[in-house]
Amino acid sequence: MIKIRKEQYKALSRYMLASFIKRSAKHLTGIWPEKCKAFGDLALCEYIRNVIEFAAIDGIDREADVILYLDLFFAFDLESIHRLDTPWAKDILEDNKLQSKEKIQELYRRAKTELVKIAKSEAV
């Protein structure tokens, strides 16, 4: 049986986090190249790290869900999804009965509704 020491586990965890941040940056750059370029590489990685921390606090714990969570942050230009202009998100994220995937699905459903409202108000 192989035993992993705490130091080894921490090193592996750091590697996995760095790998996820790199993949996330590539994903975001593919969708929002200009926005990511404006951030710069280091700032983008720090932004992603912060969103990962928010995701953990909000019960978003699946890798695919965290990527979608990042997409929401970028789409709405958020520093925090708990901002006053996104009270609909706060209600979803604080619902402890919802699993990670369910939270993301509900966030996306509501985000689409909010984007339609924004589009209608800008068309007037």
Name some characteristics of this structure:
single chain; globular; mainly alpha
Secondary structure layout plus pairing:
Layout (H helix, E strand, L loop, with lengths): L5 H26 L1 H7 L1 H17 L5 H13 L11 H7 L6 H24 L1
Describe the structure.
Helix 1 packs across helix 4 (63-75) and helix 5 packs antiparallel against helix 6. The protein has six helices and no strands. The longest helix is centred in the first third of the chain and has 26 residues, at 6-31. The protein has one domain. It is 76% helix and 0% strand. The chain has helices at residues 6-31, 33-39, 41-57, 63-75, 87-93, 100-123. The model has no long low-confidence stretch (mean pLDDT 86). The protein is an all-alpha fold and 124 residues long.
Give a quick precis of the structure.
This protein has 124 residues and is mainly α.
The chain-level mean pLDDT equals 86
N-to-C CA distance: 67 Å
Radius of gyration, rounded? Answer: 17 Å
Based on DSSP secondary structure assignment, what is the total number of beta strands?
A: 0
Helix content: over 70%
- Provide the low-confidence segments as ranges: none
Give the overall shape. Answer: globular
H/E element sequence: HHHHHH
Q: How many domains make up the 3D coordinates?
A: 1
Instruction: Quickly give the structural class.
Output: mainly alpha
Main beta-sheet strand count, sense and barrel state = none
Strand content: under 5%
Question: Count of DSSP helices?
Answer: 6
